[in-house]
Structure formats: C-alpha cells, structure tokens
Specification:
The complex is a heterodimer of chains A (455) and B (352).
Chain A (H helix, E strand, L loop, with lengths): L9 H4 L7 H19 L4 H15 L5 H8 L2 H4 L3 H13 L3 H12 L12 H5 L2 E6 L3 E5 L5 H13 L3 E6 L5 H13 L1 H4 L2 E5 L5 H10 L2 E5 L2 H10 L5 E5 L3 E6 L6 H16 L9 E7 L6 H18 L7 H20 L3 E5 L7 E5 L12 E7 L2 H7 L7 E7 L2 H14 L3 E4 L23 E6 L1
Parallel strand pairs in A: 2-3, 2-5, 3-4, 5-6, 7-8, 7-12, 8-11, 10-11, 12-13
Antiparallel strand pairs in A: 1-14, 9-10
Chain B lengths: L5 H14 L4 H15 L1 H10 L15 E2 L2 H4 L12 E4 L10 E4 L1 H18 L9 E4 L11 H9 L5 E2 L1 E4 L2 E4 L1 H14 L3 E6 H10 L11 E5 L11 H12 L6 E5 L8 E2 L17 E6 L13 E7 L8 E11 L2 E7 L15
Parallel strand pairs in B: 1-14, 4-5, 4-8, 8-9, 9-10
Antiparallel strand pairs in B: 2-3, 6-7, 10-11, 12-13, 13-14, 14-15
The chains are: A alpha/beta (455), B alpha/beta (352).
C-alpha cells in the first residue's frame, strides 16, 4: 500500500534509507527555506481555504487518500475499517472554514492577526497594534497510534505559518503520512513545509539536530520522556509538553430517568467505542450517581446493550494478543470477584473480547485496560466522586458530564477547581472542538510570539 | 474417580508425584471436584458459570483462578485456624500481594515437588556439596518469600545468603557475592548461584568485576524484573551472566514459578544445550489459552498461560497466569506479560 505513494517524506523511504544526523539537519534547513519561500507570507485566508477543502475531501468516499486509509489492512491503521471511517469523519467534520476562522479569532483576537499588525478594541484604546508570528520550525515528537493529535498539530502549525518536522511513533506514522501526502497533492507548497520521519524515542543523535534547528518543540508522552526532552533544550526554545491524562464520565442522578437513560447509555457507548477507547479523551470509567430512577447497575447493563449493538455497526476489530490477553485475564478476575461477592457484575461480548462492562460497588478510581472495556461505579454525589478519584487528580483531561442545566455550572466550577481541563456532554468525549484547549493551554496562543507596535 | 477427603487426595497425588502412580487427567478432575466443594471462591465461580464439576471430562474445562484473585480473597480449603504459613507475591509495595496459604500437609507436598525438580534440572541428580551462593535472604528472614523458602529447601546447609531483608523486598550485599566467587576460584571448586534475575542485575550493575568461575559452576535464575532493576531480554541477560561470571550458557538454568503455584518449570537441564523451552514436571501441565476464544491453542500461536498443578491440592488446581506464551518443542516459551494497554496518543502511569 505504501508503494503506491511517491517518496516525498523521509518516512516514505524508511526503513530502507538510513537516517543520519546530517539528513535530519538538512531536512530541517530545507523546511525552513521552503517556509520562507511559500508559507510565511501566505495569507491566512488562503491556508484556511486549502485546509478546509482538504478536510471536506477527506469526508468524501471517492477521495483517493481516504480510500487508501480505509482499504489499508487494519494492522496498518490499528482500527477496524468502520471504526476508522467513523473517527476520520468526526475529525475532519470539525475542520471547516468557519471553525478555522473562529479558532484563530479565539486565540489571537482577530483571524487576520497573522497577516498584519491589527488591534483589538482594548489595544486601540492603548494606541497600539499587535502582530503574531508562528515559529519558524516546529518539531513534533508525536506518540501513539491515534492519528488525530498528530494531524491536529500539523493543521495548527500550518495555520500559524510554521514549517514542521514530525517524529512519528513506531508503527504510528501511516495515517499522518497519508494526511501529509494529501496535503502535498492538494498544494505542493504547503506539503513542502512538512517532513515526517520515525526513529526510536530518545535516539539523541537524531533528536539533537532537530532540537538545534527547531525553535519550538512539542511532545506527547510519559512525564519522564517530557522531562528528558525539556532538559535537552536550551532556554531559547519553546517547549510544549502533553503528559499523562485520563478521562471519565459523571452521570448525575436527575439524568437517570427511564426516558433519558437509554439514549444516554448509547452516547456513552459511542464514547467508549470511538478509537477503541485508546485516546486520552476516552473514558476509563463511568461514575453514576445513586438515587436516580435508573440504578447505576441498570445503567451499566444499558451501556452493555449499547456496546453490543455498536459492535455490528462499528466493530472493534482485531487487537494484539497482549491486549486481548489482558482483557481475557481481567474478565476472569472479575468473574471470580462477581462470584464471590454480590457487589460486582460483568457483562461481556459472547464471542471474543470485543466489549466488556464491569460494575463494581467499590467506587475507588480504576483505570481500564481499554479496547472497549469500561468500569461503571456508583457514587453518592459529586463530592464523594472527587474524593475517590483523588489518585487521578492532576492527570484528568476530560469529564463527560450528564447533568441538568441548572446544576451543570456549579459542577463544572467544582471540577475546574479540582483540576479538570475539559467538560463535555456524553457522546462527544472523543470529539473536542477545534478551539479545544489541550491540557488547559491555548492551542495557537502557546505557539505564536507577539510583536507589539506602539504608535 | 472421586476423592472423599483431602487426605485421600493428598495421598493419591503424593503417590503420583513420588512414584508416578495414577493418571493425570483423572486425578486433576477428581481434585477439582473436591476443591469445588471446599474452596468457596471455586464453588462460587462454578455456580456463576453454571459448571457442574461432577460432569467435567477434560482438564481444560476446569475453571481457572487468576493469580490476582489471590490478592483479593483466600483461595484455600484450609480453615483459618489451621493456616500455619503463607507465601506472598513479590509485587511492588503499591499493590497488595497475592497470598497462598499453607499448612504442614500442603507444605510437605510443595517441598517434595520442588526438591525433585531442582535436583533433576540444576544439579543433574548429583548431590551438591560445593560452594553455594543464594541471592535471597535466609528463609527465616523472609518467611513469606516462596523463593527464599525454596532456597532453604533445595540448597545445602553451607549456603551463603547475600540478600538482606528490607521493608519492600531485599537488597544484595555485593561484597558477600564477591568474596564467595573469589573463594570458589581460589578453591577451584564449582559454585552454584541461585536467585532472581533482578538480584543478579543489582549485584553485577554495582561492580565492574569479571570472574571465571570454575568448571561445573552453574546458575539458577528466575522471574522477571518487576520494575526493580533495568530490564534485559533473556538472551542478553544470559549473555551478561556468562560474560561476567564465566559460566557457560549451558549451565544457566531458568526457572519459572510463582507463589500461587506449587510446581515450577525449568527451561533446561544444566550442562545440556538442548534448545530452551520451559517444561513442568509430569504433575503439572501448561495449557495455552487463545486470548479471544478462551479455548486451548492448537498450534504455536501466542496465548495466555494456564497451569493445571496437581500439587496445588489445598488451593486451586487450575491457575490462570497473566503471562503470554506459546508452545515450542515439548514445552513452552514465555513472551512477556499481558499488560494494561496504554491509551495511545498519550500515556498514563497511574498506580494500580
């Protein structure tokens, strides 16, 4: 499948062609030259038009790059075809002209601030203008097989007019590379400002030239990985690190009426099934408040039914023996527990490890082994939930929340003070809007450097 | 075949272990029936899964107890007042350990199972009256370590212990190791080294010494690293032992055991060069389970290792491990451990 693509990027020739520090240095310098020539002065409007058209194409079944993504063996993408199609559709549907304009306006006050010095009303009263510049070259140390974060980084980098070198994680470069090829195909000059390669993480002889050439490094990974990268960067380089995160859901009891709960369970199941639960925005567990018309245990059973029916439309697909072995082992464990005590129940796909729901009375925070394995636990109220989830505090990205409008604001404030950086409705956990502040940080604001012009 | 009492089962299985009398499958099914009556967790599991123990006719139908269940509940038929000792898994301090309860009868079975196998694989059935170094604490210092207990049972009285017990495991006194090695070389007498892989690494990483231990010296190493030392693939680890201690790979024997089992597998007989493959004694049988279907694997595909261990008379005869394995030769090869998948796209490292 890869043979069908031209060799535009270093990744296309790997592993045959060996990377050397000189190759990485030269690639970075070429990227910077291309950026100066093609991208730096390209009007934002034009970048937005190209990106939104490309995103529209990616939702078209006849688009050759989408076809290649969906026709690839699931072992290359890591997802079953229906799951991948669903994920790609939801991702690209967000990349519209309006949304891109709004993102820049949210971040920079006005969507033209990357083209010329302009002022907001506040700045005007101060008699000054401001101009935002993206980094010359961003180095992304990408991690994981979920393609969205890498593709989103590429889009954000292009919006601020930066060249980008993406170090892909092992076996995770195929979809980002396909996206980069589609960009090259649509607009070769934009494509010429992107490079992709892979090497084993921490290989310093290849990372050092990248760290020397790039003026901004972003990285996703373990805390130790981030710390070691930060240590190796000199103070003039900007570093943006995204560390360990987990997500979970909270269902307030008033939402557990017989009328609402089945629909809620279906949306919950979609959150669990999206990208096979492998992203940091996917829920590990669902906290269900006691006292609603539908008991937490019944709600768990509803999620199981919804996961079962999703299996026909968005099958999970095959996973590695390590992953399925973990599920099989955990199922055995909860089987023994549910047999020994009345406070544990388990529902699971009959054949294979496709989905599993474990209900436990013990509310202590538990991480899931993922691939559509969800824990459901009852709690008395929000305060109890925050108490039992204390061990995850500081590492929580998203809380999927179902609560009546009148109570939601108070809950969100409490969650925010506790450290949660994103709250969203059930069913949207894996679909953050374009303006989402990853880890609570401004997505473009962290990339740009301002020049104030006082008059 | 059925057992009316544990006494009867214990005798029958002891005869099988010591004299090979009886038939494995029959003994296993009869023992499971007995356990399904007397071990509450097994009884409940059978009931939950709708299994009638009296009608089983294949050993792979026996419901297996996952090792982590030993953390949660007492998997034993021994009444609380009769439990005289127990072994604990050597996990990290953050997690509760597995506990395997024992009394005199169960320990006696355990000991006879381990001595015979150790003598066969590590000592080639010779009596060892040479130098012996254990990289564990003396058994009295670590009464809940099944490995220290094993050292006490299988190694001679003159064994030098280099392990010092600490609250979260044990540390190795490198000086003791160095002086025992030097003495063996000085006496030109072979040395038997015994210990977990991480203790060997702690010792060897703390010094720069190289030894050329006398001929017929041998090593029994066991277990993973459990996050206690750097991790090395087995081949590299054995290469390191060979290079630093001068013990040829033919004399490095790897043992596979855990506190939830009463029998151990070995991957070679010392002094032989047969391709490595873990083999249990005839009274324990590995079954590799397809991770998707739950059925036994038929070919050499990767699956979860389950062990039917007759010597687990008083706990659970069928133990489900978290280890991935595949059949090779007449044994199995370990391929690591099924682990909690990390969210791809970001990672997390919360304590279990």
């Amino acid at each position: 499948m890869r043979d069908a693509l031209p060799n535009y990027f270093l990744l296309d020739t790997q592993p045959e062609a060996r990377l050397t520090p000189e190759v990485v240095t030269e690639a970075c310098r070429q990227l910077k030259r291309n950026r100066a020539q093609y991208l730096r002065d390209m009007p934002t409007e034009e970048v937005i038009t190209h990106l939104s058209r490309l995103a529209e194409n990616w939702q078209d079944d006849l688009f050759p790059f989408r076809k290649m993504a969906l026709e690839a063996e699931p072992t290359m993408t890591g997802f079953s075809r229906p799951s991948l199609a669903h994920g790609l559709d939801r991702f690209f549907a967000r990349i519209t002209e309006d949304n891109l304009h709004n993102l820049i306006a949210q971040e920079l006050g006005d969507s033209r601030r990357l083209d010329a010095p302009l002022s907001t009303p506040e700045e005007r009263s101060d008699n000054r203008l401001a101009f935002a510049c993206g980094p010359e070259l961003i180095g992304h140390i990408a991690s994981g097989n979920l393609p969205c974060p890498t593709m989103m980084s590429m889009i954000q980098g292009l919006l601020v007019g930066s060249a980008q070198f993406i170090k892909c994680a092992e076996n995770a470069g195929w979809l980002p590379a396909l996206f980069a090829h589609s960009l090259y195909d649509t607009h070769p000059k934009l494509g010429a400002c992107i490079e992709l390669a892979h090497w084993p993480g921490g290989k310093s002889e290849l990372e050092s030239p990248l760290f020397d050439e790039a003026d901004c490094i972003t990285a996703t990974g373990r805390d130790e990985t981030l710390a070691s990268i930060r240590k190796r960067l000199d103070s003039r380089r900007r570093f943006i690190g995204y560390g360990h995160r987990v997500s979970f859901a909270y269902i307030q009891k008033d939402m557990l009426s017989r009328a609402l709960s089945r629909d809620l369970a279906q949306r919950m199941a979609q959150d669990i099934a999206s990208w096979n639960q492998l992203g940091c925005l996917s829920p590990h567990l669902v906290y269900v408040e006691q006292g609603g018309s539908v008991r937490p245990e019944m709600f768990a059973e509803m999620i199981a039914e919804a996961l079962d029916s999703l299996e026909t439309t968005q099958p999970r697909g095959d996973i590695s023996p390590e992953e399925s072995g973990t599920i099989a082992y955990k199922r055995d464990f909860y089987d023994v527990r549910s047999a020994g005590a009345g406070d544990v129940r388990q529902w699971k796909s009959e054949e294979g490890t496709h989905w599993t729901v474990v209900f436990e009375e013990d509310p202590v925070f538990t991480t899931s082994c993922l691939n559509r394995f969800i824990h459901v636990k009852p709690v008395g109220d929000l305060n109890e939930m925050l108490r039992v989830a204390e061990m995850a505090r500081g590492q929580v990205s998203t809380v999927g929340l179902a609560a009546p409008k009148n109570d939601a604001e108070a809950i969100v404030k409490q969650l925010a003070h506790w450290g949660v950086t994103r709250v969203c409705p059930i069913g949207q956990m894996q679909d953050p809007p374009l303006g989402w502040r990853h880890d609570g940080r401004p997505p473009l604001g962290d990339l740009v450097t301002w020049t104030d012009w006082e008059q | 075949m059925t057992f009316q009492s544990y006494k009867e089962a214990d005798h029958a299985i002891t005869r099988f272990i010591e004299r090979g009398e009886g038939e494995f499958d029959q003994l296993a099914l009869a023992l499971h029936q007995l356990q399904a009556k007397h071990v509450p967790a097994i009884a409940a599991l059978c009931q939950n899964r709708g299994i009638d123990s009296t009608t089983l006719d294949q050993i792979d139908q026996i419901p297996a107890i996952p090792t982590t269940a030993f953390r949660d509940m007492a998997i034993t038929s021994i009444p609380e007042k009769n439990r005289t000792s127990h072994f604990e898994s050597s996990g990290t301090t953050a997690t509760q350990p597995s506990v395997h309860w024992h009394h005199d009868f169960s320990l006696s079975l355990y000991d006879s199972s381990l001595i015979h196998q150790f003598q066969y694989h590590v000592l080639n059935n010779h009596v060892w009256d040479e130098h012996t170094l254990a990289l564990t604490p003396p058994p009295a210092e670590a009464p809940h370590s099944s490995l220290a207990h094993m050292a006490g049972q299988v190694l001679g009285d003159g064994t030098i212990y280099a392990g010092k017990w600490q609250k979260d495991g044990w540390s190795i006194d490198s000086q003791i190791c160095e002086s025992v090695c030097a003495k063996a070389i000085h006496d030109n007498a072979p040395l038997l080294l015994f210990g977990p892989a991480f203790s060997f690494l702690h010792w060897l990483d703390s010094t720069e010494s190289f030894y050329e231990l006398p001929n017929e010296s041998r090593i029994m190493e066991t277990g993973g690293y459990k996050g206690r030392s750097r991790e090395l693939p087995k081949i590299e680890f054995h290469g390191l032992l060979s290079e630093r201690l001068g013990v040829p790979e033919s004399h490095i024997v790897c043992e596979y055991g855990m506190c939830e089992l009463s029998s151990q597998a070995y991957d070679r007989k010392a002094g032989t060069n047969k391709e490595r493959a873990f083999r249990f004694p005839v009274w324990a049988r590995p079954i590799i389970i397809n991770t998707e279907t739950g059925a036994p694997c038929e070919g050499p595909e990767t699956g979860l290792l389950r062990i039917i261990d007759l010597a687990n008379v008083y706990s659970s005869i069928a133990i489900q491990t978290q280890d991935l394995a595949r059949s090779i030769e007449d044994g199995f090869e370990l391929l690591g451990r099924a682990q909690t998948a990390e969210p791809r796209g970001c990672s997390l490292n919360l304590l279990e």
